[in-house]
Every structure is written in C-alpha cells, then in structure tokens.
Amino acid sequence: MCVQAINQQCDFIEHDRVSGFWTWLFVLSKLPELGDTVFIVLRKQPLIFLHWYHHITVLMYSWFSYTEYTASARWFIVMNYCVHSVMYSYYALRALNFKPPRSIAMLITTLQLTQMVVGCAINIWAHGFLQTAGKNSCNISEMNIKLSIAMYFSYFVLFARFFYKTYLSTNARKGKRPIQVTASSTATSGHQYIDSGSSLTGKSDVQSLLAGGQASSKIKAQ
Fold first, then answer.
1. Which of 54, 55, 84, 191 is labelled catalytic?
2. Residue 191 designated active-site
C-alpha cells in the first residue's frame, strides 16, 4: 500500500486527471509565451538576453519533463502559474494605460527570484530522495535534476542582475533605467537611459533616441 501510494504521488499526471490537464495546458502555454519575443523582434525593440533565453529554455525543459512525467514538475508548474498570473495582470494594466506603482514591478521580480531559489531547493531535495529511496522510486531522472538546477540557477543570476540594474543601480535610483539600443551601421550602439516610467514602444521611439543623440553630437561639434 505504501509503495502504491508513493507511485501515485510520483505519477500525478496519470493518476490525477485534474493535475494532468493543467500540466498539459502549462506545457502548451510555453508556445504562445514565445509571442512576447516575436512581437519585440517584429517591432524592432531592444531584445535582452534574459528574455529569449528564459522563454526558449523553459519551453524545451517543460516539453522534456512532460515526456518523463517528472514528479517534481508539479511544484514548478504551481509556482509558475502563480507568478505569471501576477506578472501578466501587471502587463495587462500597462497595456490599458494604467500606471501601477513601481513597487509592483519590484514585487514581481522578487517573486521570480524566490521562484528560482525554491526551484533549486526542490531539485536538491529530489536528488536526496533518489539517493535514499532508489533511482527507480519516483518519476524523475538524474539528468532532469541536473538540467533543472542548472536552468534555475542561471535564471537566478540573470534575474538578480536585472533587479540590480533596474532598481538598485545609480541610474535606477535617479529614476532612469538602461536600455541597450543597437543602431544601424550609420550610428553607434551603446546604452541609452530613459525614465523608468516610460518604455520603447516601437521603431519610431528608437529612431527618436538616435536622432536626439545625433542632434546633441552636432551641437557639440559646432
């Protein structure tokens, strides 16, 4: 009975139809999430490494884990659903021209950092469980644990760096945040700083920044 109970808990996708359904939707949801990246590229906005790296690796890992019915995935799915519900609600408000306080954005990034720490802790716990109960005791492989902990740790480093640059750095405290603008061969590329309450919305905004920089250069030359 004990062994059967453990197997049912490990193989939650097959034994619990509700969990299986939401797990399936979670895996599928990683495809439309790539739409964020597609829209940024099509609108020629600055695309940071953290954005596309996070979306692509989550997609690949989620699909890989689904093929194994990874037992620890339930923790990752619940955390991701919770954090994303807050994050996309924030994006929806911004899209509707509402201006949530800066503290909400900081809270979302803090939740993401917490998610990465918990993710690493769960993988360490899963590794210890396999060492104690045996490698065939639950639906999780050593390879999955290694990939997951490497992914979560890299996310933590990248999100911590983003948090520092956006909220704690000198320019952030002055109410500005760094945006890297990659210009064409006729202009230089570098970091531009804009007010934290504004955002680049398209090609015209990038051109405005570059035009402003060129205009200031002409004035200095005169």
1. 54
2. no
